[in-house]
Amino acid sequence: MTRQRLYTVAVGCCLAVLLTGCESDLSANSTFPTSSRGQVYQTGNAPDDTVFGKGGLFGGEEDKNLDGGVGSGGGLGVNAYLWRASLDTLSFMPLSSADPFGGVIITDWYSSPDSPNERFKVTVYILDRRLRADGVRVTAFKQNLDTANQWIAVPLAPKVTGDLENAILAKARGLRVAREGE
Asked: How many CB atoms lie within 10 A of CB 88?
């Protein structure tokens, strides 16, 4: 019992020392400090610079340029026109995953009502913050249903992925022209 009592007294003393070391003025006259490391801000606020750049994680008013440059897309990690065009182009397919910061869109398997024995899956990679022809890459997969009701992978012509990339780029360019003009 004496060890436990001694331990309790020791803990109580440590807490008392810590709490008295946290002395502060809690009167009604106290104000929020307006200085940091010896620098006094005239407006009373610190500048808006953050680790995410000017405007923070989701961008500020000057980050509205969606075409390219630092901060394009208002917080998106990729070009906003390519992102929007990719989503619009693949809107008929169910989405499995969409990561606007990494620039990856993955669809789920899609079967057309006209041909229920074949299905497609598409992955779009947006590779750049600028609207460029090499800023988007598409991979597509096709499967056919065999007689044993098993899905079998079928090679897809490279023209299909090229056509999807071109459709996304054309849509992105149209979005840019509609917003900014040519």
From this structure: 15
